[in-house]
Write a structure and sequence with these properties.
8-stranded antiparallel sheet; two-stranded antiparallel sheet; globular; Lipoprotein; Protein Transport Mog1p, Chain A; 4 helices; alpha+beta; signal
Length: about 200
Amino acid sequence: MIRWLHLGLIALMLPLAACFETEPLTQAATRGLLPATGPSSVQVLRDAVTVTGPAGYCVDVEATSESDIEAFVLLVRCRSTLRASPVLSATITGLESDGNPDSLRRLTTFLQSMPGRAQLSRSGDPSDVTVEAANFADGVIWLLIHDNGNPSAFDETYWRAILPVAGRIITLSVLAAADHPFERDSGLAILRNFVMRMRTQNAAQ
């Protein structure tokens, strides 16, 4: 019973994360997603979690927001590239992880159901979302999501990872520009690097 209660709490936090992400993503896209001049990392939720991306990514300070229970951090390339590079986002919830991988394994199955897709949807409508791939490996939920509710500047298909970091449940996303969608494998490679960097940076916390 306790395990299922914790699973329910994680699921309930996901729509809050989706809503929390939409406004800063839209605002950042409106500004044109210019190269960031911010730091390579930032600490959030009273320094509980350090957010950092792969090499070459910097924090977009204007698009970073935080409340008492969650934080959103956007990372973009530090320097201009010949074509639009994917942007990265991290949403950190106030929900603590129980450290039990079975909770996330069960959540992986739940997220492919209609109620689960409603949780992932930026609009709350499960019909907007198709989970194109979902698996649990290395303590992480790996999701390839198609969401019609993504801000228009971004491709509707994006990668998302859900995992515990520094005792918190976090979600990490890789979003491509609408006019420069990434290949499936390249997007996943960026997300894996993002996950590795986050784990390494927070290993001592």
